[in-house]
C-alpha cells in the first residue's frame, strides 16, 4: 500500500526542499467566496451554492469514501450539485505544489502518500487554515456535542504544533501493538501473554515446535517501536516517552528504557526471533507471520488490509497490548499506542475554506464513518462509528483493545516530529542493530541518546515539545 509505505518511510522524497519554494503565507480575501448565513444546520456559515474543490490521495484507502461524503455534502447543499470538483492522485506534491505557489489550492486536501507535502514547511509558511472553528462547531449527529468532543484521544493534539492552532485533521485511526493469530496460539494451547515471563514461556513452547516467537521488518526496524514504545511507557509512565519526544538530555537513559531494551534483546538471545528476520521487508515478515512461521509481529491496524492476500481464512488475526514487565510497572496492562492517520488539511488560500471544513464535519458523521470503516477496514477518528457493523477479526480486536485501554493510550510524537531521528537513526541505526545481535542494549541506548542530542543541537531542525 503506497500510502502506508510512504507514511513509514519506505519511500522517501525530498519534500522539504521542494516545498520550501512555496509562496509564503498570505491570504487574499478577494479570492474567497462569500460566507453563507450561519444557522443550526450550517454552523460554519457555508456558502450554500459555492463550488467545492477536493483532492484526495488515491492510496490504500482509495477515494470512494470521500466521493460518498461529497454526495452527502451535495444533499445538504443542493445548489452545489455539479459544482463539487473531485480529483484523486498519488502525486500530491507534484500536482498541488504549482497550485499552492500560484495561490489557487483546493478547499480540502488529503495530504498523504509518497509525495506528501511537508507539514512543517506548510505550517511555518502560514499556508494552512486553523481548523479550530470546525472542532468547536456542533457535531453532525449530536448538536449538543462539538466535533472536538466526538474525536478519539490524541487526534486534536496530533494536528497541533507547539500547542498552537490545529492545522491538520487526521481522519483514520491506527491501533499499534503486538499482532498475532488466535488460531496459531491455540495450536500451542496458549493465550496472549499478559506478562513478559509468560511471553518468554510461549516463545519457548513455540521454539520446541519449530516456530519462532517473533518476526519484524528487519529492513525497516522502526516497526519495532509500535510495541516497544508503549512497553516503555507501561514500565516507566507516559512521562518517559514525553521526555524522549522533547529531546531532553539523558531521556534515553531512563531505567524504563533500559528494562524494555533488555527484555526485547532477550528475544534475540534466546533464539526466539525468526531466522533471517533482519533481511525481511514489511511484506515479507507479514507473509512469514501469516504462514505460521512466527507467532508475534509488531505492527499497526493497517496490517489486516495490507496482508489480506496471504492471510489464511481461519487465521483469526488479533492485536495485544504490550505484556507487563513486572508488578512495578507504572501503567496497567492494556496500555497501548493508538493515534490518528490519513491527514486532511484546508489550505489558507482556499477559495471556500468553510466548505472544506464542512465536508470534514460530514465525514466525521456516523453515516460517512460507517461507510469508511466498511470500505477500508479501518477505524476513523470518530470515537465510535462502528455500532451495528460486522467487523473483520483484526479490526474487531483493535477496537476491543482500544476500549480496554480507556485513558491508557499513548501517542509518541517522535515519528512525526523528527522523522529522520526516529526511522533512520533510532530505528535502523540502533534498534535494528540491537535486535540483529550486532549491538547490546547498553550500546543501543547510548546510540539513541547520541542521535537525540545531535538533533537537539541542530539549529536547522525545528523543535517541538509536549505542552
Automatic annotation (TrEMBL):
Keywords: Signal, Transport
PROSITE patterns reported in the protein's UniProt record: PROKAR_LIPOPROTEIN
Cell location: Cell envelope
Domain of life: Bacteria
Keyword Nucleotide-binding recorded: no
Gene Ontology terms: cellular component: cell envelope
Signal sequence segment: 1-23
Gene3D superfamilies linked: Periplasmic binding protein-like II
Stored InterPro entries: Bact_solute-bd_prot1, Chitin_NgcE, SBP
Keyword set includes Transport: yes
Family to which this protein belongs: Belongs to the bacterial solute-binding protein 1 family.
PANTHER family membership: ARABINOSE-BINDING PROTEIN-RELATED, SN-GLYCEROL-3-PHOSPHATE-BINDING PERIPLASMIC PROTEIN UGPB
Name of the protein in question: Carbohydrate ABC transporter, N-acetylglucosamine/diacetylchitobiose-binding protein
Lineage of the species this protein comes from: Bacteria, Bacillati, Actinomycetota, Actinomycetes, Kitasatosporales
Gene (UniProt): ngcE
Amino acid at each position: 500500500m503506497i500510502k502506508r509505505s510512504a507514511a513509514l518511510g519506505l519511500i522517501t522524497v525530498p519534500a522539504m526542499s521542494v516545498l520550501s519554494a512555496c509562496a509564503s503565507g498570505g491570504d487574499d480575501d478577494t479570492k474567497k467566496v462569500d460566507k453563507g448565513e450561519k444557522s443550526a444546520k450550517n454552523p460554519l456559515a457555508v456558502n450554500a451554492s459555492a463550488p467545492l474543490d477536493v483532492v484526495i490521495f488515491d492510496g490504500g484507502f482509495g477515494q470512494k469514501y470521500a466521493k460518498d461524503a461529497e454526495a452527502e455534502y451535495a444533499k445538504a447543499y443542493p445548489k452545489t450539485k455539479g459544482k463539487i470538483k473531485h480529483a484523486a492522485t498519488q502525486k500530491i506534491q507534484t500536482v498541488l505544489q504549482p497550485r499552492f505557489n500560484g495561490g489557487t489550492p483546493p478547499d480540502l486536501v488529503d495530504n498523504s502518500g509518497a509525495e506528501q507535502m511537508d507539514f512543517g514547511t506548510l505550517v511555518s509558511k502560514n499556508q494552512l487554515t486553523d481548523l479550530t472553528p470546525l472542532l468547536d462547531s456542533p457535531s453532525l449527529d449530536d448538536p449538543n456535542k462539538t466535533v472536538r468532543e466526538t474525536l478519539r484521544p490524541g487526534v486534536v493534539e496530533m494536528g497541533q504544533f507547539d500547542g498552537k492552532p490545529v492545522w491538520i485533521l487526521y481522519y483514520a485511526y491506527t491501533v499499534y501493538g503486538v499482532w498475532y493469530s488466535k488460531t496459531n496460539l491455540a495450536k500451542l494451547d496458549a493465550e496472549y501473554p499478559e506478562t513478559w515471563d509468560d511471553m518468554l514461556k510461549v516463545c519457548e513452547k513455540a521454539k520446541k515446535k519449530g516456530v519462532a516467537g517473533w518476526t519484524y521488518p528487519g529492513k525497516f526496524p522502526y516497526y519495532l517501536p509500535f510495541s516497544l514504545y508503549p512497553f516503555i511507557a507501561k514500565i516507566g509512565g507516559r512521562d518517559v516517552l514525553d521526555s524522549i519526544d522533547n529531546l531532553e538530555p539523558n531521556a534515553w537513559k531512563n531505567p524504563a528504557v533500559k528494562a524494555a531494551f533488555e527484555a526485547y534483546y532477550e528475544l534475540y538471545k534466546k533464539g526466539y526471533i525468526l531466522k533471517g528476520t533482519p533481511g525481511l521487508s514489511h511484506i515479507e515478515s507479514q507473509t512469514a507471520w501469516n504462514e505460521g512461521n512466527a507467532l508475534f509481529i509488531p505492527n499497526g491496524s493497517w496490517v489486516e488490509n495490507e496482508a489480506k492476500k496471504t492471510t489464511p481464512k481461519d487465521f483469526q488475526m488479533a492485536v495485544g497490548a504490550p505484556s507487563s514487565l513486572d508488578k512495578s510497572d507504572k501503567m496497567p496492562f492494556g496500555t497501548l499506542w493508538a493515534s490518528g492517520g490519513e491527514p486532511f488539511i484546508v489550505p489558507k488560500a482556499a477559495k471556500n475554506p468553510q466548505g472544506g471544513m464542512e465536508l470534514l464535519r460530514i465525514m466525521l458523521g456516523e453515516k460517512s464513518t460507517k461507510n469508511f470503516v466498511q470500505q477500508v477496514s479501518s477505524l476513523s477518528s470518530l470515537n465510535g462509528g462502528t455500532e451495528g457493523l460486522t467487523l473483520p477479526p483484526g479490526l474487531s480486536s483493535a477496537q476491543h483493545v482500544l476500549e480496554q485501554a480507556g485513558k491508557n493510550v499513548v501517542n509518541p510524537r517522535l515519528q512525526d516530529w523528527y522523522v529522520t531521528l526516529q526511522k533512520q537513526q533510532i530505528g535502523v541505526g540502533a534498534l535494528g542493530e540491537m535486535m540483529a545481535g550486532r549491538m547490546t542494549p547498553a550500546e543501543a541506548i547510548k546510540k539513541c541518546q547520541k542521535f537525540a542530542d545531535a538533533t537537539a543541537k541542530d539549529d536547522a531542525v525545528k523543535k517541538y515539545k509536549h505542552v
